Amino acid sequence: MAKKKQSYFLIWPLLFAHAFLVYLRGYFLSIEFTLYPYLTAHGFLPYKNILDQHFPTLLFGPFSLPAFLTLNPWPLLILFLVTLCLTDTLLFAALVRFQVKKPLVWLSFYIISSLYFAGNILWIETFVNLFLATWLWLSFSRHSFPRALSGLLLSQILLLRPTIAPALFFFFLGLGAPLSLPLVCGFLAGLVTPFIYLNQYHLLPDFYRLAIVFNGQIYPGAARLLPAKRQILFLLLWLAPVVFALWQKRKFFWLLSLASFLILIYPRFGFEHLQPLFLVASFIWATLSPTPPKVLYLLIVVLFGLNLISIWRHPYGNYFLTPEVQSLAGKIQNLAGPEIYLLGASDLLYPLSGKVPPQKTYLPSLPWYFSQKEFSERIITALSDQKSPVLVDYSATVDGYNIVESSGPIFEYIKINFVPGLKFGNYQFFLPHQ
Fold first, then answer.
1. Quick check: 159 pLDDT over 60?
2. Contacts by 350-353, CB closer than 8 A, 24 or more apart
3. pTM recorded for the entire structure
4. Exposure winner among 2, 117, 150, 191, fewest CB in 10 A?
5. Spatial separation of the C-alpha atoms in residues 104 and 228, rounded to whole Å
6. What is the pLDDT of residue 10?
């Protein structure tokens, strides 16, 4: 017992190191976590007013984050770092519960791996990992409430990232996790609650068009982003030891699970989407090994060195909250009226300036949304009263495509129906006719 208490005490330096390295390296607080709670607090409804294809969970809906926790930068940064540290702590508790030898070493491996592979990005998978680590800790509990809670967490994981379902299915089969009535009840409650919310606000048709039809038929082709060869090589090198260990032990369900986690990078590649893979693979490898193998220590040293190089070469700070954005927010605040339309400019300017999109219509400035005639017409209709100013960023690009050019009829409408105003650098205001 004393040894276990000592192990839990020793986790604190690791948690501090994790948070400090994220802060030192720089962090990407994805704008959606600030913008969507802000918009919903101003009466915007998902799918009807916020044209976004994500499922109703943390971004908006009955389980969404409250706006006061997401105001940029400090509350959201603290939330991010606390979430990372909670995930570390719960993963460590799960490793102890599964009687893994030297759990601190394995936790160090997970932290340093996660950080190198885009773990400094606050995105949906940040919370998927928190829920996964909590589920692992609760998974073999004999009591009803922890089992019901674990079922609720599983439902939220699937709502946050539906394509994770095959990977979780094979992982649970390999783990031999028990299926119980409280777990099933918690799972169903977590799935039913968002749909009650959608029905209450008459959002089911809009949800179907965006989250089902657009996600399934349009988004995969329009938003595809492939990995570079270097990224594939690094990922394969990281996976090689755990795959070899699984093959030796004939753990084929877990091999299928790791392979299925790769679905998460489709259609847009990004290491941040693979965060659940790094957590589960670290846990699996730890449970297979009677003691940490020598290659594990080598990987920890190499990845730690690579992280230090990244910190030295690319010190991002708060990536999205730049001095330029802060300066723009001040200029927008001085404009009359509560509304503005941003074309290509950072959507963080809405909450920073206290403004909202015109006519309660928000559309992300992304090529795959602009390619849809229905969405473009919604924006043009919202601008048709010609009462809201417009800010255009001519230099904004996504995947090499210029945002203004991708907007097509939207920018053409702005040029014809609005008066060009102040221009500074790549930005230009367009003002309504007086």
1. yes
2. 350/35, 350/38, 350/39, 351/34, 351/35, 351/38, 351/71, 351/72, 352/72, 352/325, 352/326, 353/329
3. 0.95
4. 2
5. 33
6. 83
